[in-house]
Specification:
79% helix; single chain; mainly alpha; 0% strand
Length: 246
């Protein structure tokens, strides 16, 4: 990888971490697309996992006192069950399938009637959401929009949503990193110099977003998150269909 590509990649990581630090969403979606265009699937998933773990760990530390531990705990239980079962298959999807799943899932969730949407206050909803998001992480590399839909279904404010989602994301991306570096047949190779730069870039972008998040109202936060999720999901559906048509 050339020095110019590495520099552009680090700038992208700072920008996507800033976006995730502000809205808790979208940064990972953008970053995985960039990484998949530059690296083999397993390598892209592994580097994305390191970057997102760093970004979400720093975000969770900044907002730690706002974490809602009950839904987080339920999510982790579901994710762990899914990880153990998925490891038996060692399946890695092609790019078209990954993009379609990534786009369709949040849109379908958004269209569900309120009475059947995920509710973070219901324990089994958290377990089911954790299991589904873990499968989505291993298929697409990203599950942020689904976790957002889960926490937006409760009465949490923007800081609780960002903090709680960050803890869920740390666990999910750690499991993804283990899967693509240790479980699958053709494991990823990870340049730890780039990984270290990614961690620093993620922490910087996350820190820069904190003041803007504090200045934003809950109504503004929810409106922007919903718009961002819908827009990016529609793009991935279109992109997935394009890849299938090739």
């Amino acid at each position: 990888m050339s020095l110019l590509v590495i520099i552009l990649l680090i700038i992208t990581m700072v920008g996507t971490a800033f976006l995730s630090g502000l809205f808790g969403v979208a940064g990972g979606l953008v970053l995985i697309g960039v990484l998949l265009s530059l690296l083999p699937v397993a390598d892209a998933m592994a580097l994305h996992g390191v970057t997102q773990m760093a970004s979400n760990s720093w975000r969770a530390a900044l907002w730690f006192r706002y974490v809602s531990w009950r839904p987080v705990g339920a999510y982790v239980v579901g994710a762990l069950i899914a990880m153990l079962l998925w490891s038996l298959t060692r399946y890695v999807p092609d790019k078209a399938v990954a993009m379609l799943l990534l786009g369709v899932t949040p849109l379908v969730t958004q269209m569900l009637p309120a009475r059947v949407r995920p509710n973070p206050n219901v324990l089994w909803h958290g377990v089911a959401n954790g299991a589904f998001c873990m499968m989505l992480l291993l298929l697409t590399g990203v599950a942020g929009p689904m976790i957002d839909r889960f926490f937006l279904g409760g009465n949490f404010d923007r800081r609780q949503i960002v903090a709680s989602k960050s803890v869920c994301q740390v666990f999910g991306h750690l499991a993804k990193l283990i899967y693509f570096t240790s479980v699958i047949d053709q494991t990823a190779s990870l340049d730890w110099r780039i990984a270290a730069a990614a961690i620093l870039a993620s922490m910087l972008g996350t820190s820069l977003a904190r003041k803007l998040l504090e200045a934003m109202t809950d109504a503004q936060f929810r409106r922007w998150v919903n718009w961002i999720i819908t827009t990016i999901s529609a793009y991935y559906v279109a992109y997935g269909l394009y890849l299938l048509a090739l």
